[in-house]
Amino acid sequence: MFEQQDASRPDTIRTEFHVKLDHHDLSSDPVAAGIWATERGHNFEARAVGTALLANNLAARLEAVREDALYARLIFLFLGAPGAILAILLTLAVAGAGRDKRRRDQTLLRLRGATVDTVLRLATAEAAVAGVGGAILGILLAALAAHFILGMVLLRAAAAPLLSAVAVAGIALSHAAILIPAWRDTRGSTVVAARRPIGNDRAPLWARFYLDLVLLVLAATLYWRSAASGYLVVLAPEGVAAAAVDYTAFLAPLLLWTGLALSAMRLVGAVLQQGRPVIAKGLRPVAGRLADVVAATIGRQGPRLTAGIGLAALAFAFAASTAIFNATYEAQARVDAELTNGADITVTGTSATPASQALERLSKLPGVAAAQPMQHRYAYVGTDLQDLYGIDPMRIGTATAMSDAYFANGDATATLTDLAQTPDGVLVSQETVNDYQLSRGDGINLRLQNTADHQYHVVSFHIVGVVREFPTAPKDSFLVANAAYIAQQTGSAESEIVLIRTNGDPARIARAAQSATAGLPGLKVSQIGDAVALIGSSLTAVDLAGLTRLELIFALVMLAASSGLVLGLGFADRERSFAVLVALGARPKQLGAFVWSEAALVIGSGMVLGLLVGALIAYVLVKLLTGVFDPPPDVLSVPWLYLAALIVTAAGAALLAATGEAMRSLEHVTEKLRGE
């Protein structure tokens, strides 16, 4: 095709090659893969010595997703690490629940002639069996969860180092929970002291040193530095290979989670010791006339109940914070889709065929709740050509969301009111404010095209605010002004865009809109579902679906375990006390008053404290990870159905534990009395 030109003017011929690289050499980490692709491109440019131009599309694409990949890693850390910590605490709590009985058994062995080494070997064997068995069972359950929830294979050669590390950590934790207390008891106490049923209920070390208050102060300081001051947790400048991630920001929610849990335990401990009348009054619906006796019994078991309530509160807080963060992320994904598309349905035309010509027909379609026209013109700011949107400030919100996050002052209503009250007002982007050193109240001259002569003329405006984002607008520089003033200055009142809010299925109404505008060539109809699919399938989307699904299920399991298992083990450790009550003639209803009251106290207190802590943790997480939201949310989204499932799960687990103990307490009373 170009033979003649090549023969006469070879200097005007350029050959273009499209090359596909072998992606097997790419790292699974997008950041590392982007660096590799960039370096390969630089290597080619060095060898070409200026004889070729390179368009490195792969590096550019990976550069675009680098920040999102770092945020995904942070989200995994922020949401996953508390679950691992909760599992460790649950393991220690389970081991600690049987510590008294284990200490008495070991003391009995020493009384019958067993040496300290023999007792420690038996404790080591118990810890090994528990650790190895728990590690195997945990890995199998994790493999099943990965297969059915995440759709991935966990038991493979590449995962062997990670699984081995997890198994070793689990076995070490088992030994720490069982062997260390056994060694301390055998080395530091006599047989008589170890067999004493009532020990020294001294306040724990963290309470004496006010560790909870220290952690809360540190959390507040770190949060103020990272979030309140506008500090970016992830910094990935465009065109720079290096990226910075402030992992210390994770300390703020972690310290807050721990500090609030310890503070809750301190509060519960104080109430159990000093608030017997309050506890008796609260338990009267469950314990009846025995409420005062039950309250006195509960007051003498403060340390054990405080630990149980603290663990239940941590489980509730972990589950609630994860669920609220996930719900907020999903809600903002729809807001992002609406911001991208413009509204539920957007009809876009051109200056030759404006969409406002079909406004009346579109407004009358079934399922259309509101339809608003929006001008889309262009204006010169100096020599910079920017998008200009003309709106009716007081009515635009009927067709599309006007989020507070769209505006620099954080108040959409006030900003739009100021714009409506200033006919020649204009909202400018933050980039324009920075580039041209502008401020609110300044006059600004823009050049707009007039329909009469198709020439650009100077039009005066006054800046009334700063806009960060706006429906259908680009991310960098754009302007928003009153449609009536633009129409007056340009000689055209037509609007190139029509935004539609629906009260039905957007896809169905979009098809009706396409039929209604079929006679107007050049009009394009888009609906929010297309934007949601595009954003969800984009490489730049941080998909939390699999992670949060796993997190939410894990949270339910942890909550059931902390509510039922720990409660049940606590009941089992006091079987002899319940047997004494039965031997003294306590009826099942009277015995149930003790069991049901304790279960209600642990679950009720843990639920209230945990949900409050969880909401606060979710708020901190959203503030710290603002960069993952586009735009940032105005309020948190609360998944009421999941929170109700949490409450039902905890109550069900406590019900099973209490019912089982109430039934077991009536059996084999004589054997239990002889067991001491």
Give an overview in words.
It is a single chain. The protein is α+β, with helices and mostly antiparallel strands and 676 residues long. The chain is 61% helix and 10% strand. It contains 24 helices and eleven strands. The strands form two sheets. The chain has a six-stranded mixed beta barrel with strand order 4-5-9-6-8-7. Strands 1-2 form a two-stranded antiparallel sheet. A hairpin with a 6-residue loop joins strand 7 and strand 8. Helix 10 runs antiparallel to helix 22, helix 12 packs across helix 22 and helix 13 packs antiparallel against helix 20. The chain is elongated and about 105 Å long. The termini are far apart.
Instruction: Give the neighbour order of strands across the main sheet.
Output: 4-5-9-6-8-7
Separation of the first and last Cα atoms:
101 Å
Main beta sheet, described?
6 strands, mixed, barrel
Number of helices in the DSSP assignment: 24
Radius of gyration, Cα only, in angstroms? 33 Å
Beta-strand percent range: 5-15%
**What structural category arises from helix and sheet content?**
alpha+beta
Helix content: 55-70%
Number of E-state strands: 11
**What spatial form do the alpha-carbon principal axes imply?**
elongated
Tag the structure with descriptive keywords.
about 675 residues, 11 strands, 24 helices, single chain, alpha+beta
